[in-house]
Write a structure and sequence with these properties.
Oligomer: single chain
Number of domains: 1
Shape: globular
Number of strands: 0
CATH class: Mainly Alpha
CATH topology: Globin-like
Helix content: 55-70%
Amino acid sequence: MQESKSLYEQLGGEEMVTKMVNIFYRKVLADPRLKPFFEHMDMGRLESMQRMFLSTAFGGPGAYSGRNMRRAHNHLVARGMGDAHFDAVLSHLDDTLAELNVNTPLRNWAHALTESMRQDILGR
């Protein structure tokens, strides 16, 4: 019996995650609702952490060793990040996956995984 592939494998592995993170942050930084949250951030470090996190969250190799989602986003919540911002991030994630020609079932899977972190990311 063949094991089902992880989202990471079905998306295309490390190369696809790297493309995804690059396109995603381009969209986020162009969004006036989100851009202020990323001022003065080391975007190279942030993109690296995001690649590691998504690889782990999507079932890829290695293990994310950064802060948990609540701690990693506390400073953003303190600056006013809320549901509308989270929704904008989800929209940019979906647009990124669509731009990369990812099929709807995989996009929905990525959306559901991200949505499952809403409460922690928003500090609830």
